[in-house]
Write a structure and sequence with these properties.
Blueprint lengths: L6 H16 L4 H16 L18 E7 L6 E7 L14 E7 L1 E9 L5 E3 L4 E4 L3 E4 L6 E6 L6 E7 L8 E3 L7 E3 L14 H7 L1
Antiparallel strand pairs: 1-2, 2-9, 3-7, 3-9, 4-5, 4-6, 4-8, 10-11
The protein binds fe (ii) ion (FE2).
Length: 202
């Protein structure tokens, strides 16, 4: 598979999310329309370069694919090694999650009156192509796991901020919460802007 063959797909998606934010749409519309665009993006698996699809044997990877120049949004590939999962965490901003390869299991949580985190509903299995949303409005605390113990899964996430700069929380099993900033696994971003090359070889 030539994973560099269609950089235009991510470029188009960047423009679609930016256009929604330029129009200053309500979060509901952003999630609906942005979710539809993300569903289209993850319906094709011919655009994510291998360097941003590499699993780590110890920890799931978060590769920044694009950051908006005003940090209004960021796009990240989450690469899950076999059996890897996040801690229970929140986001504090809207987010969209689309499964590009494999499958994931998502479990929602909420805080009880005493501030203790508890499971909210049953875990959902998200197959390739599935899209879902998080936000403080629609439910912001969850834990995501690779559904597979023997293969890599990848999801594409979009957040309403530069998520690598957002102070948010993880909720340890022993109770309470810990502040964290997730950061990124990569120092180099994929070049989706070399349009002349696409024209030359199309
Ligand atoms: Fe998350």
């Amino acid at each position: 598979m030539n994973t560099l063959s269609r950089p235009d797909r991510l470029r188009t998606f960047v423009g679609q999310i930016a256009a929604l934010l330029d129009a200053d749409v309500a979060e509901t519309q952003l999630i609906d329309a942005g979710g539809a665009h993300l569903r289209e993006l993850v319906s094709h698996d011919d655009w994510l370069p291998d360097a941003w699809a590499r699993a780590d044997p110890v920890r799931y990877q978060q590769y920044l694919l694009h950051a908006d120049s005003r940090q209004r949004f960021s796009i990240v590939s989450f690469v899950w090694g076999p059996g890897q999962s996040t801690p229970v965490h929140d986001h504090t901003v809207w987010g969209l999650i689309g499964v590009l390869r494999g499958a994931e299991v998502a479990q929602d949580y909420c805080l009880d009156k005493g501030g203790t985190v508890i499971a909210n509903g049953v875990a959902r299995r998200l197959e390739t192509g599935a899209v879902e949303a998080v936000s403080p409005r629609v439910g912001d605390i969850h834990r995501v796991s690779n559904a597979y113990e023997d293969r890599v899964s990848i999801s594409i996430h979009v957040y309403g901020a530069n998520i690598g700069a957002v102070s948010r929380s993880v909720y340890p099993a022993e109770g309470g919460r810990k502040t964290f900033i997730s950061g990124y696994s990569n120092d180099v971003l994929p070049n989706i802007w070399n349009v002349s090359k696409e024209i030359a070889f199309s």
